[in-house]
């Protein structure tokens, strides 16, 4: 990396930071248990992931992936329908893989956190009470028993890299765990409902679209406070608040 002319800040907040230095991504995380999960999950996943170059806590060095992200929340995706379908197919491969040995969040944990976030959103006047109530009701459909699968846990489109119609890799595995398959599909299509049919076609299995929409509401309700407190703007066009406004 001797000829590198700049360092790019990919994401940075008080919990973690990711820098790009040439063809290397440096991830620095205050919580090494998240890095432990990330490295372990990448070794277990049956889909392409970045190569681990080295790890010297608190830093993890990963090789850059070929291609570009499938898209960004709040921006139109230029990826082809075939690329979106390939992302769905990659999710199916992951969900069919053996479970990781560590559990994910329980239904009770998710429901309790959802209640707390909804109370905060209304009490602090962040969002109108009727908007929160309506989406809280929609979110109920996600709070049902599911058969655990190997989930990425944060399968947003910025974490899926494509080259043409091919998936070249999936990044940011620190939230991987046993979980609900439909949560991954909802994360992948959040704010991009127009590509949901492509993802489902690539996934190749019957999915409950109402549950995916429920996860859109639930994920957005849970995200607003964290985003605000970490310097991000969930009120940007096409982002979490717009997702909540677009709900039923």
Task: Write a brief structural summary.
This protein has a single domain (65-246), classed as Aminoglycoside 3'-phosphotransferase, Chain: A, domain 2, CATH 3.90.1200.10. A hairpin with a 2-residue loop joins strand 4 and strand 5 (59-63).
Which secondary structure elements does this structure contain, and how are they paired or packed?
Blueprint: E1 7-12, E2 16-21, E3 24-29, H1 32-44, E4 52-56, E5 59-63, E6 68-69, H2 81-95, H3 107-123, H4 129-139, E7 149-151, E8 160-163, E9 166-170, E10 177-179, H5 181-189, H6 196-203, H7 209-229, H8 240-246
Antiparallel strand pairs: 1-2, 2-3, 3-5, 4-5, 6-8, 7-10, 8-9
Helix pairs in contact: 2-5, 2-6, 3-4, 3-7, 4-7, 5-7, 7-8
Describe this structure as you would to a colleague.
With 248 residues, the protein is an alpha+beta fold. The protein has one domain (65-246): Aminoglycoside 3'-phosphotransferase, Chain: A, domain 2 (Alpha-Beta Complex), CATH 3.90.1200.10. It is built from 8 helices and 10 strands. It has helices spanning 32-44, 81-95, 107-123, 129-139, 181-189, 196-203, 209-229, 240-246; strands spanning 7-12, 16-21, 24-29, 52-56, 59-63, 68-69, 149-151, 160-163, 166-170, 177-179. The strands form 3 sheets. Strands 1-2-3-5-4 form a 5-stranded antiparallel sheet. Strands 6-8-9 form a 3-stranded antiparallel sheet, covered by helices on one side. The chain has a two-stranded antiparallel sheet with strand order 7-10. Helix 3 (107-123) runs antiparallel to helix 4 (129-139). The longest helix has 21 residues, at 209-229. The protein is globular, with a radius of gyration of 18 Å. The mean pLDDT is 94. This is Phosphotransferase. It holds the Pfam family APH. Residues 42-205 form the Aminoglycoside phosphotransferase domain.
């Amino acid at each position: 990396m001797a000829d590198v002319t700049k360092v790019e800040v990919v994401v940075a907040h008080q919990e973690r930071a990711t820098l790009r230095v040439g063809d290397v991504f440096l991830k620095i995380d205050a919580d090494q248990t998240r890095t432990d999960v990330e490295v372990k999950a990448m070794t277990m996943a049956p889909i392409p992931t970045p190569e681990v170059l080295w790890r010297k806590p608190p830093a993890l060095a990963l090789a850059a992936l070929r291609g570009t992200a499938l898209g960004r929340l709040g921006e139109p995706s230029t990826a082809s329908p075939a690329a979106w379908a390939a992302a769905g197919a990659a999710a199916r491969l992951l969900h069919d893989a053996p479970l990781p040995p560590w559990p994910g969040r329980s239904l009770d944990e998710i429901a309790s956190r959802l209640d707390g976030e909804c109370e905060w959103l209304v009490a602090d006047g962040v969002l109108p009470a009727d908007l929160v109530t309506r989406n809280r009701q929609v979110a109920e459909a996600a709070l049902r028993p599911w058969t655990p699968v190997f989930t990425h846990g944060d399968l947003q489109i910025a974490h899926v890299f494509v080259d043409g119609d091919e998936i070249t890799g999936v990044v940011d595995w620190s939230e991987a765990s046993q979980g609900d398959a439909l949560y991954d599909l909802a994360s992948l299509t959040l704010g991009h409902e127009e590509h949901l049919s492509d993802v489902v076609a690539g996934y190749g299995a019957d999915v409950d679209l109402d549950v995916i929409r429920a996860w859109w509401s639930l994920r957005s309700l849970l995200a607003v406070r964290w985003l605000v407190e970490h310097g991000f703007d969930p009120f940007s066009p096409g982002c979490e608040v717009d997702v909540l406004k677009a709900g039923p």
